[in-house]
Amino acid sequence: MLKSKIHRAVVTDANLHYEGSITIDFNLMEKAKIKPYEQVHIYNVTNGNRFITYAIPGRRGSGTICINGAAVHKANKGDVIIIATYGIFSEEELGNDYKPVNIYLDENNQEIIK
Question: What's the CATH number of domain 2-112, 3.40.50.1980, 3.30.1490.20, 2.40.40.20, 1.10.287.1080?
């Protein structure tokens, strides 16, 4: 099941010579319930690329969304992306009203309350 999603984040930087991952503003990670080093799926709205990596916390309140390592070939600064996490849940955990955490961002990677 979809666990959480950060929708329409704008890539603020790309660092090819880093060992890998995506750096995400730690405030956004906490709101989306993404743990440091958790696997994340990245869907690039701008160019259609998809890839899997792991999240590392960036400076709180910075709006940082930085693609690191080889993934730089899949997303560039300025691209719009979706960051998704998935989990395995029992029927009891899901219940009848399960909803993933969805965080919607503006062009400055600030949360839009819906």
Answer: 2.40.40.20
